[in-house]
Structure of Methyltransferase domain-containing protein:
Amino acid sequence: MGRACVDYYHTSDDSLNIEVWSNVAETDVIPVNYLFRSYHQMPALEITALQHCRGHVLDIGACAGPHSLWLQEHGHKVTALETSPGACEIMQKRGVRNIIHDDFFRLSANCQYDTLLMMMNGMGIVGSINRLGTFFAKARRLLAPGGQIVVDSSDLRYLFLQDDGSLLIQLNNKYYGEVEYRMSYKGEKGRRFPWLFIDDQLLEFYAGKHGFRMERLALGNHYDYLARLTPQT
C-alpha cells in the first residue's frame, strides 16, 4: 500500500492498481487513485461517518489521508494512525499534521480521543471474532469520557446466498466473515493477513457483551452499514 501511495503521489498515474486476493472471492483490484479520493468521491457511508466525527479524532488506518485531510480542513483536531511508512510519508507531504506510525493494538494510551474513526470496513483490523474482546478493551482505554467509535463493516452473507434465498454456510466452521487477504503491487506480494467482516447483529451482540452500546447510523446499498459504538457507564 505504501509503495503504491508513493508512486501515485509522484506520477498521478490513474492506471495503477493494487491486486487483492482473498480466500472467499475472486481476485479484485483497488485503483490506487481511490486511496487519494476527495470528499465528493467518497461513498455515502464515509461522508456520513465524517459528519458524525467530533472532538479529537483518531483516524485508524488512515492510508493516504483522505479522511484526515477533510477533518483538518473543517476544524477538527485529528491524528492519523497508519502502519505503512510509505503511506505516512505521503500523508505528511499532503499536509496531514499529526501522524502516528504504529499499529492500533500497540498504540500507547497516553492520549485519549473523542472519536475513533475506522473506515473501509474498519472492523477488519480485528481479524477474527476471538479478538473482539481485545479490541473493545483497547478502544475503551483510548476513548476520552463520552467518546465514540464510528466504524463501517459488511455482512458477507451475500457470498453464500442460494437461488432459493437460503444460505449455504457450514455452522461448524469459523464465522463466515473471517477472511484471509493478500495484496500485491507491481508483482510484489505482501504477507497474508486476517480481516473481519462482521454483520451488524453480531457486532451489536459482542459490543453489549463487552460493555458498549451500538447504534446503526446508516445502511449501505450492499450489505454494508455504519455504526456508532459507545461505552456504557
